[in-house]
Design a protein that fits this description.
2 copies of one chain form a homodimer. By secondary structure, chain A is mainly alpha-helical. Chain A has helices at about 10-35, 45-50, 55-60, 65-90, 95-105, 110-120, 125-150, 160-175, 175-180, 185-200. The first copy, chain A, folds into 2 domains: about 10-60, Arc Repressor Mutant, subunit A; about 70-200, Tetracycline Repressor, domain 2 (Orthogonal Bundle), CATH 1.10.357. The structure holds a DNA duplex (30 and 30 nucleotides).
DNA sequence: ACTATTGTTTACTCACGAGTAGATTGCCTT
DNA sequence: AAGGCAATCTACTCGTGAGTAAACAATAGT
C-alpha cells in the first residue's frame, strides 16, 4: 500500500474525487436554485460560485436540465427512503404514518427536498419531467398505502385516502417554501409540531 | 340616448371595452402561465392565443412583470376578500375560520389563485416582488387573527398560531398544484372535505 | 375637413444564457 | 518516450424572447 499522504491518487481515490466534485456542483446548484429560482440562475453563476468555469459543469453533468433533474432526484430519493423506513418499522398504521410524515417534513426543509417542492414539472424537459413525475407518484402511493393500512387497523379515521394524502403532502411540502434555516426552531421540532397538528386537527378534542 | 346598437361607442362603453380587453389578456396569460409555467410562456404565445400581436399586450400592460403581478394581485385580492367576508360573519372563531379556509381553498383552484400558488416570488422583479410579498403577508396575518380569535373563545385547540397558519395554508394551497378542473369532484366539495380533515385531524375521535 | 388620440401592426434591436469547439495541461499506461 | 485519457479553460455560436420604433388605421372632438 502506498503512503497515505502520497500526492499520487489510486483509482478509487480518483473516482471518489470525481464523485465529490459532481456532488459539489449539485450542492452549489441546488442552493442557488432554491435561493434565486431555477430560471434566474445561470450555470455561469453556479460555476462562478465554485471558482470554476461553465464547461467544467458540462463535463460532470450533461446540461442544465440534467443538473436540475439530479437535484430533485436526490430529494425524492430521500423521501422514498423515509417511506421505506416507515414501512419497515413496526407499530400501528398511525404510528408508522407519523414517522413517515415527520421525516417527510424534515426532508422538505433540506436543500434537495426544498428543490423538489419549489420545482414545477414544467421547468424540466419532457423526458426528465416524466421521470420526475413518476418518482413523485411513487411517493404519493407510498403515503396512500400507509394511510390505508392505518384506516384498516383502525388507528386512523376513515377518509378519502387521496384527499388526505394531498392535504398532508401540501401541509408538509409548504415548509420548503417558507422555512428559514436561520430560524430559531430546529427543523425536527417544526416537523413534529406540524405532524401533531395534522394528527389532532385544529378543533379541540 | 343613442340607439343601443350604434357602432359609435359612448365614453363609458369605450373604457369598459378597454377594461374588458385588459382582462382578456390577463385571463389568457394566467391560463398559459398555469399550464406551461411563467418562463415557458412568451408574450408572443399569449398574444397569439388571442389572435393579436405582442405590442398590443404592451399597450394594455407595461411589461411581462406587470402582467404576472396583475395576475397574482387578482388572486390575492380574492383571498383577502375571503378573509373580509369571514371577518364580517358571526359565529365562533372555529366557524369563521372554516368559512375562510373553505373559500381560500376554492380560490386556489381558480385561475388566478392557482397562479398565486405556482408563482415563486423570484419570478418577479424587485418592486413587484415586494408588493406580492406584502399582500401575502396580509393574508397570513388575517388567517392568524382568525386562529387567535378561535383559540381565545375556546372553539379551537390552543397551538402555535404561526405554525398552524402555515400548515393550513400549505394544505389548502396545494390544490393549486394538483387540482384538475376536469376532475369529477367539484372544487367546492374538495374544499369542504379538505377543511374537515384539517379540522378533525387524521386520528380517530 | 383637420387634428389629436387610441388601438394595432410589422419589423426591428439587443442582451442573455445555453451549449460547443478546440486548445491546454498533466497524469497514467505500456 | 509516446500515445491516450481526464480535467479544465478561453472564446466562441446561436436561438430565443423581451422590449421598442415607427408606421398605419380608425375614431373622436372641433
Amino acid at each position: 500500500m502506498p503512503p497515505a499522504d502520497s500526492p499520487f491518487q489510486s483509482p478509487q481515490q480518483r473516482s471518489k474525487a470525481r464523485a465529490a466534485k459532481r456532488e459539489a456542483v449539485l450542492r452549489a446548484a441546488v442552493q442557488m436554485f432554491n435561493e434565486r429560482g431555477f430560471h434566474q440562475t445561470s450555470l455561469d453563476d453556479v460555476a462562478a460560485s465554485l471558482g470554476i468555469s461553465k464547461p467544467t459543469i458540462y463535463h460532470y453533468l450533461g446540461n442544465k436540465d440534467q443538473v436540475l433533474l439530479e437535484c430533485v432526484t436526490i430529494g425524492l430519493s430521500q423521501l422514498l427512503e423515509a417511506a421505506e423506513q416507515a414501512r419497515q418499522t413496526d407499530g400501528n398504521g398511525a404510528q408508522r404514518l407519523r414517522l413517515f410524515l415527520t421525516r417527510y417534513a424534515q426532508v422538505n426543509m433540506d436543500d434537495f427536498g426544498r428543490c423538489v417542492v419549489r420545482t414545477g414539472a414544467e421547468a424540466l424537459g419532457p423526458d426528465s419531467r416524466a421521470q420526475f413525475q413518476a418518482l413523485k407518484r411513487k411517493i404519493d402511493s407510498a403515503m396512500r398505502e400507509l394511510i390505508e393500512e392505518g384506516v384498516a387497523d383502525g388507528s386512523l379515521a376513515p377518509t378519502n385516502t387521496k384527499l388526505l394524502g394531498f392535504a398532508l403532502a401540501g401541509a408538509l411540502n409548504w415548509p420548503g417554501r417558507w422555512h428559514d434555516p436561520q430560524g430559531e426552531l430546529p427543523p425536527a421540532r417544526i416537523a413534529e409540531e406540524l405532524v401533531t397538528m395534522l394528527a389532532q386537527g385544529f378543533l379541540p378534542r
